[in-house]
Amino acid sequence: MGKEQKKSIIELMAEKVRSDSAQAKITNVDAFKEEPIKLPEEDLEDKLEVFKTEEEYADIKILRGTGIYLFSEDKMTLNYAKTMARIADKDIMALIASTVRDDSEIYPRATPAKTFYQHPYNIDKGIFDDVLEEMENKEEYKDIKGVRASNGALYLYSNKYLAEDHAAYLAEDIEVVQKEVP
Amino acid sequence: MPKYKGWAGKILRVNLSDGSVKAEDTNDYLDYIGGMGIGYKVMWDEVPVGVKPFDEANKIIFAAGPVTGTGAPCTARTNITSLLPSNPQHLIGDGHMGGHFSPEMKYAGWDAIIIEGKAPRPVWLRIEDEKVTIEDARKLWGQGIFDTTADIAGIMGQETQVAAIGQAGENLVNLATIMSNGNHSAGALGGVMGSKNLKAIGIIGTGSVQYAADREDWIALNDHVMSIIGANNQHVVPSTPQPWAEYHDPASRWTAQEGLFWGAADKPVETGICEPENINKVGYRTQKAVKDHGMIAEDYTVRMGGCQSCPVRCHSSLEIPELENYGVSRYVMNTCMGYWSHYMAMRNMDEKSGFLAKTLGAQLADDYGLWCNYGQLGRDLNYAYDKGILKDVLPAAEYNSIPWDKFEAGDPEFLVDLYRRIAYKEGEISHLGDGAAWLAERWDFDEDYWNDEAHHLWSPMGYPLHHANESNGQVGSLINIIFNRDPMNHSHQNFLGSGLPTKLLKEIAAEIWGSEDAVDEPANYTPMNRAKAKFAKWSLVTCALHDSLTVCNWMFPMATSPLKKRNYRGDTSIEAKYFSLTTGIKMSEEELYKAGERILTLHRAMTVKQMGTVDMRNEHDIIVDWVFDMDPDKKPFTPGTIKMDRDDMEKAKTMLYEELGWDPETGAPTYDKLVELGMKDAALELGKLGLLPGNVQ
After folding, report:
1. Are A79 and B245 inside 8 Å of each other by CB?
2. In DSSP terms, which residues pair with B526 in a beta bridge?
3. CA distance readout (Å), A170 to A109, A181, B249, B499, B629
4. How far apart are CA B178 and CA B547, in angstroms?
5. Residues of the domain holding A121
6. In whole angstroms, what is the distance from residue B601 CA to residue B61 CA?
7. Cβ separation of B336 and A182 shorter than 8 Å?
8. For a surface tag, which of B483, B508, B588, B640 has the fewest beta carbons within 10 Å of its beta carbon?
């Protein structure tokens, strides 16, 4: 117990982040306000600066969305941490849009709608459908489009990175072609 | 005594006409490595032009390479070579199977088995190390593969490895398989065994395969392979976002994830997170049942299975009590097209009936030994049905006896009736088992059969596309024109389907083939270039090598890896390292590729000899029209289409021929190239036949 008491706040914070990351979770800085760390809000930025500058914490990285999140890159990749941060932000529209844009730009591929019903997104299908409808009327999400494969499966893409025809083929490829030519 | 390690040193030659059994020296074939290479060399030397697949003069060669049986990962493939019954010109070809057959053959002391002649009555071949006998198979004849396998194991012992044919092979159905372990099938050549009255081969081997290397070097290479190995098809990213993974791909066969189980195991087994560094979980990475059937299969999954010495388990073993309603076992095992082809023979199915059709179809076809021609048989049925052709060609009584109501209703029981008719050659409808080219001629299919992309025909020789223009445009297309059946080539497909972003693949492509231009974004193609020709050549040569070494072309070449610390680079030199460590013959990657070129070029030479023309470009390497005419409102090389351009494809052929050292005009091997590859005898023989480009004598 005495040993525990000797740990500094920054050590406890790092321990928490590494432990969370090992369990596939990102750490919201709000967690530091609680026992046993009880970090005063005004000290947060100083502590984050330590993570950025001290060699022994080089594995700990900071992500800023609606909230501020930390993760250990020894336990979790940046891409996964970004996904978890987007989920933690609880902004489903932004989550869908950023995921779809990344897929369209990076791989490139169209994103199966069912992706969002499954882990780690776990969005209820009814809620997903409603959100998607709402997104159609939002200027900031105008680039997010839907396309259906011939078996009816819905795919999303960003027309900033993929033409409609291209997205349509990519959806058909994964839904139908790859099954007929496995 | 074998000259080198790795090879068993002997080839078994069995003449079923006179009952003779001989041991021959493998050393005569070392330039052709093993497997496919031995098969082609035997066919070239011994089977004259004009022989037909079911003639007594045809031969069938079961062969393995030096690496098989060593215990190296993913090395239990068996290559079977003969004349292809389904090919309209009966050209040379291969079937390939995994399982445990070829390692057992090596342990028994044989690198290959050459079967020639024809037995006067049904027989099976019993091999117990050096003791080889031809046994009476009259009690086995008429049985399916499952019972035959069990009966032979009952006679020889449960450790016996069996390669058998079912009723389809016995009845000389062109589309027939040879099957080992009840679910590892080599398509296309079951009828050849049937024509020789050879029901099965049973093997027990009590020896071993020795390697030349120091044990530590051997283990180090195995460890290296295990460090960069991916999931099935060398997919190197998971199918869902996971903490360890920078990338993911919904199409990946690395389906393991939290909450995904082998749900019908005695105690359900969670696949879970399988980090690349944890080699003890490689076998969990591919939950293939959900990949092949969807999530409905999770609760029916007993386990994954696969080949000897392979850590990647790509066959799903399922327990489905409902299958007993159709008179088959509730236990079924298979993978990929072994399931999917039966879905394609049906229509109007929902999730459950589709699942049952795939698994029931697998049980039936695997027992009958019926081959699907990579899914084409089912598409042929649907085409003929939809066009009303069946009503025209089938006698009314036969047509009316077929349960079309079940077909229309998506009732899997339809397959019980259909597959029995084909396997037993019952009635006109059984000609679905002839193969597409023979069938189209017999039933007078219209041009739309060949020219509608929905039917997937690729070649006038009657085989469908198999990772063709949908796989990097010209690269996949070139790979699909060279062989005499669907190419069974995954070298390019594994790379393209690894799951890594195109940008990364382009970087790796530049390192292997000299330019990022070797790889396009999917369905956003660019015109032909030299790097694509090099990519296509590499794919063809490595595939020929794999089928000769014999290693799995679904896992090798490992051009990519799941490791970020390697920047996702794999290692294309592994095969050469295994060859060197196994045999003691030091061979570089480049030198081994030269051996692959030799084998591929011998296949080409044999095809030229059989067809009696050097004009491979116009007589053999033909692609049907839909590939160039699809998507009429789109031009080739625009995003969203895999349409090819005719002139560009001719340019692609020229570049590939050049890369392979074949004549750029005709695509036939040149005298100089054959000599360079150490095949002067073949060059002289082709010269005498007037079958060298430019008619060099």
Report:
1. yes
2. none
3. 6, 14, 13, 14, 20
4. 16
5. 91-180
6. 19
7. yes
8. B588
- Contact criterion met (CB < 8 Å) for B337 and A118: no
Residue where a domain stops, chosen among A84, A111, A138: A84
Name the residue type at position A5.
Q
Whether A19 and chain B come into contact, CB under 8 Å, resolves to no
Residue that the structure tokens 């501020």 belong to = A68
Q: Which of B235, B240, B634 to mutate to test the interface with A (most CBs of A within 10 A)?
A: B240
Q: What angle do CA B601, B607, B608 make, to 5 degrees?
A: 90
Q: What Å distances lie between residue A105 and A98, A160, B569, B641, CA to CA?
A: 10, 8, 22, 18
Written out in words, the top-level CATH class of the domain with range B10-204 is: alpha beta
Could you tell me the fold of the domain covering B286-437? 1.10.569
- Alpha-carbon distance of B396 to B98, in angstroms, equals 42
**pLDDT at residue number A5:** 57
Would you mind telling me the total number of residues written for chain A in this entry?
Answer: 182
Q: Which amino acid, residue B9? A: G
**A77 and A143 in one domain?**
no
Question: What is the DSSP code string of A107-147?
Answer: S--PEEGGGGGSTTT---HHHHHHHHHHHTT-GGGTTEEEE
> In terms of DSSP H, where are the helices of B584-670?
589-611, 616-619, 626-629, 646-660
Helix axes A78-88, A92-106, angle to 10 degrees: 160
Q: One-letter amino acid identity for A136? A: E
Block residue for tokens 């993978």: B335
3-state secondary structure B315-350: EEEEECHHHHHHCCCCEEEECCHHHHHHHHCCCCCC
Rounded to two decimals, the ipTM of the complex is 0.94
- Averaged pLDDT, A12-16: 96
- B692 shares contact with chain A (CB less than 8 Å): no
Q: Are both A71 and A127 inside the same structural domain?
A: no
Chain A contact present for B587, CB below 8 A: no
Q: Average pLDDT over chain B, rounded to whole?
A: 97
CATH 3.60.9.10: which residues of chain B? Answer: 10-204
Phi, psi dihedral angles at B307 (to 5 degrees): -95, 165
Average pLDDT over residues B381-386: 98
* Residues A130, A155 within the same domain: yes
Strand duo B10-15 + B112-116: pairing: parallel
Q: Which two tokens stand for residue B415?
A: 């397959």
pLDDT of residue B616: 98
Burial of B447 (0-12, 13-18, 19+ CB in 10 A): exposed
pLDDT of residue B3: 84
Contact A57, A50 (CB under 8 A): yes
Average pLDDT over residues A26-51: 94
∠ Cα B587 B5 B589 (to 5°): 15
